[in-house]
Amino acid sequence: MNAETMEAARAVALKFVGYAARSSHEIERRLAKDDYPPEIIAAIVSDFEARGWVDDTKFAKAWVEDRADRKKYGRGRLTAELRRKGIDKETVIEAVNSGGDEAEIARAMAAALSKWHPDAMEGAGRMELQAEKKRLAGFLQRRGFGWSIITQVLNEIMKNNE
């Protein structure tokens, strides 16, 4: 292993991790993009993990907390995002299920209420109401919520607007 190449790769990785928390896979991908040898990439990722600078479990939990609370994303979307970041399946499952169903329903309700306009629906006919429910269901589905959650949220919204 060339020491000069190792230090250059370490500098790139440190700068990359300095911008935001990263998964080990993201660091590997970033270094591979600059054509660093696999053994140097592995050594740097291993060193960062040993120092506690990179921890995929902590990264996944923090990612879920941030995206779930700030963006009101559901488990499906969070799972897909973490898998794209190279987080292993077991870690993803643990991270996205940490809040429980009640938290998932609360996030879905908050997201739905941000798009639901009861004033505009006042006096709306059955067709308009169905179209609005369909639009809202699509919105929640794109946010990553499952159909059981979407159904619960829509039923609650409709019940409150009768």
Description:
- It contains ten helices and no strands.
- The protein is mostly helical and 162 residues long.
- The protein folds into three domains: 54 residues, Arc Repressor Mutant, subunit A (Orthogonal Bundle); 44 residues; 61 residues.
- The radius of gyration is 21 Å and the shape is elongated.
- The mean pLDDT is 90.
Please write out the topology.
Blueprint: H1 3-19, H2 24-33, H3 38-51, H4 56-71, H5 75-84, H6 89-96, H7 100-115, H8 118-121, H9 126-142, H10 147-160
Helix pairs in contact: 2-3, 4-6, 5-6, 7-9, 7-10, 9-10
Distance between the termini: 70 Å
Arithmetic mean pLDDT: 90
Relative helix content? over 70%
Helix count from the secondary structure assignment:
10
Residue windows where pLDDT falls under 50 for at least 5 positions: none
Total beta strands:
0
Number of domains: 3
What's a concise summary of this model?
With 162 residues, the chain is mostly helical. The protein has 10 helices and no strands.
Offer a few descriptive terms.
162 residues; mainly alpha; Arc Repressor Mutant, subunit A
